[in-house]
Design goal:
- The structure is a single chain.
- By secondary structure, the protein is of the alpha/beta class.
- The chain folds into 3 domains: 117 residues, no CATH class; 300 residues, Rossmann fold (3-Layer(aba) Sandwich), CATH 3.40.50; 99 residues, no CATH class.
- The protein is built from 18 helices and 21 strands.
- It has an 11-stranded mixed beta sheet with strand order 8-7-21-20-19-11-18-17-12-16-13.
Length: 548
């Protein structure tokens, strides 16, 4: 194994080195290297490679270079390449324990490429980890920490939990394979820790189909991965799910009443609250009561209470009577009310699904493509309220949940600077902030960090950045989270092209939460590659076994 470089000097946690002639022209920027001293082994990463030439840098020769270009025997022949190496970790060679940097490597010390066995010695997690691909340009397997959201340990030893939940953000433009990265991490987490629950609302149809992202020679099927571990996800269409919240119903009735009775928004909300309270009080919504005649009868009885002038108090009940007495207007109202009723007419209450996820480790995808896009927010509103409420209830009973929640299209639900009327963004932000200690970890996926709430981004613990985010406001987020070296690695991988991910955070398996890590995801048959690379999870079972 030929050396890559030789140590020239060191300052703090940075080593200066001269690149060996044999390593010139190779893609070593971002490569991991090993540097051995008398007592320690240092794991480093090449963060910068610069080329100098003493003749070309000497202004005396500038006129010659300007006139004739290169100088024979000097141009190119005496080029010198130097590198800066970031120290990632240090191992005591006697104890094989991670230790602080105790002494600088001596000048002249050889800097060697890292093989898989050496890399594994530096892993933070040697048992609870997940391989997601390869370290760019090296062939080394790239892994992340892979624990569940329950207790870390007890008297019996390591339980494989974080001790509290962690949140993850995934950013990437369309076509960056966000969903593949998301479902790969979810599949690896659930396969290793089947006691975890999963709640994954799918509003775009992008998550429920496990084969959707196979293209050409690329194959990825997260169902086959989970099957290899004996784990199953239930896919439940929204038509089978019943909303029960009177607040959700009042929110749904408001625009219908405002439009058909010609009411201002605030008056329509007041009327919808009065109707819902009269029908259900503090009880769950009963869909059989949501018919046009019942709603309009209560509207006629209550509408005068929404106005202050005598004229309005007299006129508005007549507006309701006009709808009741006009068969065409009545039919239109009944047809629009049916869309509201459908949300409250399913077989399974939302609260039961959320309870099963948080208490029993059930894995659920809610398929929401069967309803109008405008209704997604109402469903999400009730799901999020139930999630926060039930997680708190479990916690105050003396236990904790152990579950993952996926929020796809994150910029749609918690955009930066948004002030949604129904308060959905605030519920999600509150849930993001408070459910960590309750054992609920979130994956939030968005096309752009600039479009997502800064508060939510700050509350995450690991951040992933895919391709095409290197401009404008997105670039500022990349540089802020990944640091200078990580942002430079991102730019280099962008030049190289193809699919890649650069990340930072607590799931880094080979450094601190502030150092970046980069991954080239599996290509070809990614399902088989993922299972084969994670024998610590699947026990050597391959994709053929998964499909059997």
């Amino acid at each position: 194994m030929a050396r890559i470089a030789i140590v020239d000097g060191a300052s703090g946690h940075t080593i200066d080195a001269t690149i060996s002639l044999e390593a010139r022209g190779k893609p070593i920027r971002g490569a991991f290297v090993a540097i051995q001293s008398e007592t320690d082994m240092i794991l480093g990463r090449i963060t910068e490679v610069v080329m100098t030439n003493p003749i070309h840098e000497n202004p005396t020769f500038a006129p010659v270079i300007m006139k004739q270009g290169s100088i024979p025997y000097w141009s190119a022949d005496v080029d010198i390449e130097r590198a800066k190496i970031e120290i990632i970790s240090v191992l005591d060679l006697t104890t094989a324990q991670r230790v602080p940097l105790r002494r600088n490597a001596a000048s002249g010390t050889e800097i060697m490429p890292v093989d898989q066995a050496t890399m594994s010695q530096f892993a933070i997690e040697k048992q609870h980890f997940m391989v997601l691909g390869h370290v760019p340009n090296s062939g080394l397997l790239a892994s992340v920490v892979n624990r569940h959201n329950g207790p870390a340990s007890d008297d019996t030893g390591d339980l494989g939990g974080y001790g509290e939940a962690r949140h993850t953000a995934i950013f990437g433009q369309s076509g960056s394979a966000k969903t593949v990265l998301l479902t790969m991490q979810i599949a690896g987490r659930l396969a290793a820790h089947p006691q975890m629950g999963l709640l994954m609302p799918d509003t775009s149809g992008d998550l429920a189909d496990p084969t959707r992202h196979s293209r050409g020679d690329f194959r990825w099927n997260y169902d086959d991965v989970l099957k290899a571990a004996g784990v199953r996800i239930d896919r439940i269409p929204i038509s089978n799910i019943r909303l029960t919240s009177t607040d959700t119903l009042a929110s749904k009735l408001q625009p219908l009443l405002a439009k058909r009775i010609n009411m201002a928004a605030d008056n329509a909300r007041r009327l919808s609250d009065l109707i819902v309270n009269a029908l259900f009080g503090t009880q769950d919504v009963d869909a059989s009561q949501l018919n046009a005649r019942t709603i309009l009868t209560h509207a006629a009885a209550q509408i005068a209470n929404c106005y202050s002038t005598p004229a309005q108090k007299k006129e508005k009940p007549q507006d309701v009577a006009n709808i009741v007495n006009d068969s065409n207007l009545f039919a239109v109202f009944d047809r629009e009310l049916a869309r509201v009723r459908d949300l409250f007419d399913g077989r399974i209450p939302v609260r039961d699904l959320v309870r099963d996820v948080l208490s029993d480790g059930r894995k659920i995808i809610i398929e929401m493509t069967g309803i109008h896009e405008s209704d997604h927010r109402f469903v999400m509103h009730e799901i999020m309220r139930q999630l926060v409420s039930q997680a708190n209830r479990i916690y105050h009973s003396g236990a904790t949940a152990n579950a993952l929640v996926v929020l796809d299209e994150g910029q749609r639900w918690v955009p930066e600077g948004s002030d949604d009327d129904e308060g959905l963004s605030d519920i999600i932000k509150d849930g993001f902030r408070t459910t960590r200690k309750l054992g609920v970890g979130w994956f939030i996926v968005a096309q752009s960090p600039a479009g997502l709430s800064k508060k939510v981004i700050r509350d995450c613990h690991t951040w992933w950045f895919g391709r095409n985010l290197g401009i404008g406001a997105d670039r500022a987020h990349v540089e802020d989270i990944l640091s200078k070296d990580g942002a430079e690695a991102y730019r280099q991988l962008a030049i190289q092209g193809g699919y890649f991910w650069v990340a930072a955070g607590l799931d880094n398996n080979f450094g601190t939460g502030t150092t970046y890590f980069a991954i080239h995801p599996f290509g070809g048959d990614a399902t088989k590659a993922f299972i084969d690379a994670n024998t610590q999870i699947f026990g050597g079972r391959n994709a053929a076994v998964a499909a059997a």
